[in-house]
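Worked problem 6 (solution included).
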Amino acid sequence: MALKEIEKRLALSYGNKLQIECVAKCGFAVDEIDMYATNAKADLIVMGMKGAGYLTEKLIGSVTTSLIQKSKCPVLAIDEHVRYKLVKKIALACDYNETENEKVLYPLIEIARIFKAHIYVLNVENELEPVATTAGHVVSGFIKLQNSLAHADHSFHFITTQNIVEGINEFIEMSNVDMVVMIPRKHSLLRDIFNEPKTKQMAFHSKVPLLTLH
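Solution. The predicted structure is:
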C-alpha cells in the first residue's frame, strides 16, 4: 500500500522524532480531506500538485485547488519537482484589506520566525483593471498589516502589471523567493487568479510552494 511505503520511508529518515498515522477514507477526496483535517484540528494540509506550475483547466478542477478554495485549514501546495530547501524569502501576495483579521497571518509569522525568513509583502495591481478602492481604505489596511507584522522581518512592495500571474512570477524570479503565500477569500487576489480565464495557461511557478491561509 502506497501510504505504508511512505510511512516506512519517513520512519527511516526521522525515526521516533516524527509521529505518523496512516488513514484511508472512501468518498470524495476534497470532502474527506477537509472533514478529517477539521476533526483532527490539523494546523496544515500538505498537498502534492502534479504540474502545479500551470493554471490550466485541470488545475482549476483539481483536488488541491478545490481544497484551497474550500478548507478553513491552511493548505501548502507543493509541485512534484520541488526539492526541500530552507525557506528564507517568503512573498505574501495580497491586497491590504485581505489581512484585516490579523489571526489569518499567524501561521505565516510563525513560519518566518522558525526559519528566520524575510517576508516580502507584495501588492499587485492589474493596470488594465484597477481596483476601485479609496485611499483611506488602502492606508487603513496598510497600517493594520504593518502592525500585524511588527515583530517579523518584512518589507512592502507594489507593482502594476497587465497580468497578475506574470507580475508575481517576475517578482519571484527577481527576489529569489522560496515560498508564496496567499489568502483565498472572496474578491481576493488568489480568487481573481483562479477565476480569470486569461491566466489558466500561464505558468505560476513550478518550483515554489504555495501556502494559502484562511
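Discussion: The chain has a mean pLDDT of 81.
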